[in-house]
Amino acid sequence: MWNLRFIIVITLLFITPFSALAHHGSSGQFDTSKTVEMSGKITRIKLVNPHSYVYFDSTDEDGVVTNKRCELQSGSLLKRHGWTADMFAIGSQISILGSPDRTDPTTCYMSQVTFENGITASRNSYFNDDGSLTDEESIEAQEEEKETELARVIIREDGTPNIDGNWSWVREERRGRGEGGGPPSIELTPAGEAAVEGAASEENPRYQCKATNIIMDWWFDGIVNKITQTDSTITLKYGFMNIERTIYLDGRAMPADYEPSRAGFSTGEWQGDTLVVTTTGFDEGWIMAPMGSERMGSKPMPGNMPEGGERPEFKDGEKDGKRPSGPPGGPPSPAKNSTQLTVTEYFTLDDDGKVLNRKYTLTDPLYLEKPFSGSDKVTFTLDDYEDYACDDLTTEREATIFKDKVDTGSNTQSGLKSTLYALEDSSVGTLISSTEWGYPIVLSLHAIGMAILVGVSLMLTIRVLGFAPFIPVTAMAPYWRVAQGGFVLNLFSGIALFCGGASEMYFNWAFRIKIVLVFVGLSLTWWLVKICIKRSDQVSKAHARLAAVTTLIWILAIIAGRLIGYWS
Length: 568
Known about the structure:
The protein has 12 helices and 19 strands. By secondary structure, it is an alpha+beta fold. It has a 9-stranded mixed barrel with strand order 9-10-11-12-13-14-17-18-19. It comes from Paraglaciecola chathamensis.
């Protein structure tokens, strides 16, 4: 019995760890100084966060069909503005004006779209329920009408301002240069300079579906935030990237074992009508994350950030070792915060209770030469708060994956593309690709199933090869049922994972090889059990050769599985 347990332990150690995830990372780079026009028939629409994409087949003068895509606003913001997937009917014509990708001619950054019904909208347009265009003023008027009916209370019973409710940043017209609101002035210490040396957009947390900081993420993309206010705590749930902060009003100190995070540990107090919040306990992160110029052009810091452009060089007379923050027309240089960061915020509510103003100061003696201050404001809204399901498609290859592999003019191949897209757009595919926990949960089940299947199979084969000869071969037979159970778990979880990225996985040769090897290994193990393990304790040379081949097949299947992320 000890030998049998030893076989199980050694086998499981041999096959783990199993799975690794290559997450979408860096963002594509768009040339906002140029304009490109793309048109074609819509093949799919993905209204996801942080950026939505519309895909369409474009036919050139020679009749060659190319699948293209253009990036839209975040799915949450578009839905809040009345955009729906039904507007992008599959097979309908679409025309887009936008900025071209710097390296991929099949991708653009949409600034204006014209639908088949003749409606032309910008990326910030609002739609009514019937699909007609509206404007922000009309939306605000409707909200004011609803607010009147709800009779919002501005002052709580304890005399403090009522900031409970949902809030979001409303995009304002940009102020022209010379009207104030220049680039943020961030001066870094030598340690701060060293921390951002060689920073690239691949390191931007936003392109990895992670939070950036409690300042910028509060207003980013105009996503709805939720504040829950009590006598002892105020909870801030950010709609962007799901940051959640608890502001303690009871004077408690940060616990000694507190784990640093992006949200930090916040304490606050009401000083008259102003809520003063002090936050420490941060992990090292970004104050200004590195990003391409088109990103900064599309997501300015309200009243503080300029539009996209090139980063400036140092000029004569500038302080040595102080990174310039960027002139009008250029994105701010990246800046990190250390674990010594302290953020002080001052929240005030306007007289009618509709605008929540915030002033803030960031102090970091390790990375910042001097404190950095700014301000922003969010507006009360009756829109619902939604969890931010992030699925960064920025670097995914679905836009061009069929270009060289599929004859889109063929009905058969066109049907293949439609089938693969349908799998990704199914409820299972969406669960895997567009929810926070769908992928890791199913991936874990897949790893468990594979560990059971391959682990037991290898346990059987190495016994036939002569390991632990004191264990009767026939005593191993019942474990084959355990392996079959692992296969069932592995099969269903594998199908779900395939649905999450069908158009990518289908053409991945490592994936195809792994599938073939798994079924070959399963068949050979079943045959070995049938002709040897269930029949007799006598092992022939033919049985040993079959066991050796089966072991090799399982090893190759494991290797192929690890190569899937590298052969994409």
